[in-house]
Each structure stands twice: as structure tokens, then as C-alpha cells.
Amino acid sequence: MMMREIFLLLLFCSLIKSSASKNTIKDHLQRGSSLSVNDDSNVIRSPDSTYTCGFYGFQSNAYWFAIWFTNSKERTVVWTANRNTPVNGRGSKMTFRGNGAMVLTDLDGMIVWETNTTSTDVDRAVLLNTEISSVYWPSPDPGFNVWKFGRTSYNSSRMAVFNDVGEFNSSDWWNFRASDMGFGIKRRLVMDYDGNLRIYSLNESTGLWSISWQAIAQPCNIHGICGRNGICVHGVPPECSCPPGHKWTDPNDFSQGCKPTFDRTCLVGTSVWEIVDVKHLITG
């Protein structure tokens, strides 16, 4: 009888980075066995070694059970089971129970995450190679354009695929492709912190990611990148600064913009400053 398997889903999300370590490779998790947070070698790898899953420590004594790109220099996570509820760095484990469920438990035995697979007769869990990832948008407000330079409310459907060649095709006819389009390159589609949608391609020899497509090519055109009253100067990367008479609202977060250091009450004889050598003054 053909063996049934649990397929661990690969979901794209936010990017978390950490130093990669050498691990003992496993290709599956047998029924009744577990992966322990206490042992970094307890990982499962996909058949072509694209993905690895196991426990990932992102803070002191805080761990996710995650899937990441194996060959990325700085470990790039693509899915986590317990994003909002990290587990303890000692005693936590992912167990493939005898009833067919995958269960993540914390140090005290509390169930943090589990699969709904108890009605199946699976006998091993494997991490598969996934070539196509589906994308679904929640229903937008009527008439709302999600992307000024791309997706619109052309029709009521909201299905799309980002395939292994580097093409994005959607049911509402928003299509784009990576500049290095072709097979054999690992890519990820990311909504970045600045609100820009980008495709990143992995250089397998260096383990580094590079941008192979972005929705808004000029970062200074992204609304609010330097915040209210901030000045964005074109460059790689773009530079933010404050106009005379202003200072950063938060020096550690330029997107918070600039605040005046003067009394904003208009007075007779108030001077006007000329700002030179900048192309954009973006205000919130």
C-alpha cells in the first residue's frame, strides 16, 4: 500500500534573519518521533535541499518551528508554525504523534500549534519541494485599487501564482516577471517594510539575495518613505534628511518624518528658506 504523507505547507511572509549552522540532515519524521529544540541537528530537509525545517531561535530563549531556505547565507524564513507564540529554548518539541497529528508543544507541555490530521493513517511527515505558490487577496473595499502601479479591481476574482520561472500571473491580469526569468533560480516575492513589492533572487554560490523586480523602481516615489516633512534624495539606497528648522521625530525610524524645531505661528517678517539639490520633497 502506498505510503501517505503529511505535506508541510510553504507560506511566504515576513523575512527573519539569523546565522546558519550545519545540521544533520533528515528527509522525514517517522510516526511517533519528534524534533527537539534542544538539538540544532534535529532538522528535516526537502529532497532537492531547497528548504530546511526545524527550530529557529530569533531571540534569547524564544524559538519558532520554521521552514527556511537552506542555502541562504543569512537564514531566510518562509513559514512559521507559531509566529505569535514562540516556544521555550529548552524542552519544546515538534512531535508526529501516533494518532497522525503534528503537534508543537512548549516546555510545560502546552500545545502551541497542531495539524488537523488525526483522521488519516499517515506514517511519516516530509518537507516537499514546492515549485508554485498560490496567492489570495482578501476582499478589498469596492473600487479600491490595491496597487497604483499594478493590480486593480479589474474583476471580482483574486487568484494568482508566482511560478518557478519567475513569472507572476493573476486572474485580474496583473502580470510581471523577474529580470533573471528562467528555471533553476530560487526566488521569493516580498511585501517589504517600505510598502514596495519586490522579487528577490538567490545567488546559490554566495547565499545572498538580489532584487530582480520591484513594483516601484524609484524608492523616492514610495509615499512617505522619509515620513512627514522628510526629504528623499535619489540614490542606492535613497537618503532621507530633514529641511532646515526640523529634526527627526525618531532618529532610528526615518519613516516617522521630521518635526519643526521652531514655533509654527506665522510672524511678520518670517524668512523663507530655499532648498537646493533635491528632486523630491515628500510630506505625509
Automatic annotation (TrEMBL):
Keywords linked to the UniProt accession: Disulfide bond, Glycoprotein, Membrane, Signal, Transmembrane, Transmembrane helix
SUPFAM superfamilies the UniProt entry points to: alpha-D-mannose-specific plant lectins (SSF51110)
Bilayer topology: Single-pass membrane protein
Signal peptide: 1-21
InterPro entries per UniProt: Bulb-type_lectin_dom, Bulb-type_lectin_dom_sf, S_locus_glycoprot_dom
Transmembrane segments: none
Listed name of the protein: Bulb-type lectin domain-containing protein
Record's subcellular location: Membrane
